[in-house]
């Protein structure tokens, strides 16, 4: 296993769209690396393959207190969404910056687990926000893309200062 480098804005690779995984076996080692990379961060609760420069449609999430309950989503898709919710978000690719983002309150997401088994998550908890944030990454979108140009400039300045 290996801890991978996490890309930060304005890296152009964060704008690439992920491609569906075709062979589950081919990505097992990568999933281990993605998990190790997330756990290596101080407070990372989710990480998309896009953030480490990969175009696999894979994301990992762990919202548990002890960080011992990883969720792996391969080829995730939002099946339905409902309601509105505004909450503060941060991102490992935009260190040092947090802002309020408007999202759907409730989502249903379908994906494959790391054994290739299809499953569905229906949630209106914090997980719904994390899922939307991470799935945005797979579409080449970071959370500041949802904000004003002014806020995007502030975010970029913070990231450059923190580097
Ligand atoms: Zn992020």
From TrEMBL:
The keyword Iron applies. Signal peptide: none annotated. Binds 1 Fe(2+) ion. Keywords: Hydrolase, Iron, Metal-binding, Protein biosynthesis. Its EC number is 3.5.1.88. GO terms for molecular function: peptide deformylase activity. It comes from the Bacteria. Pfam families: Pep_deformylase (PF01327). Its cofactor is Fe(2+). It is an enzyme of class 3 (hydrolase). InterPro entries: Peptide_deformylase, Peptide_deformylase_sf. The active site is at residue 134. Fe cation binds at residues 91, 133, 137. It catalyses: N-terminal N-formyl-L-methionyl-[peptide] + H2O = N-terminal L-methionyl-[peptide] + formate. Removes the formyl group from the N-terminal Met of newly synthesized proteins. Requires at least a dipeptide for an efficient rate of reaction. N-terminal L-methionine is a prerequisite for activity but the enzyme has broad specificity at other positions. This is Peptide deformylase. The lineage of its organism: Bacteria, Pseudomonadati, Pseudomonadota, Gammaproteobacteria, Alteromonadales.
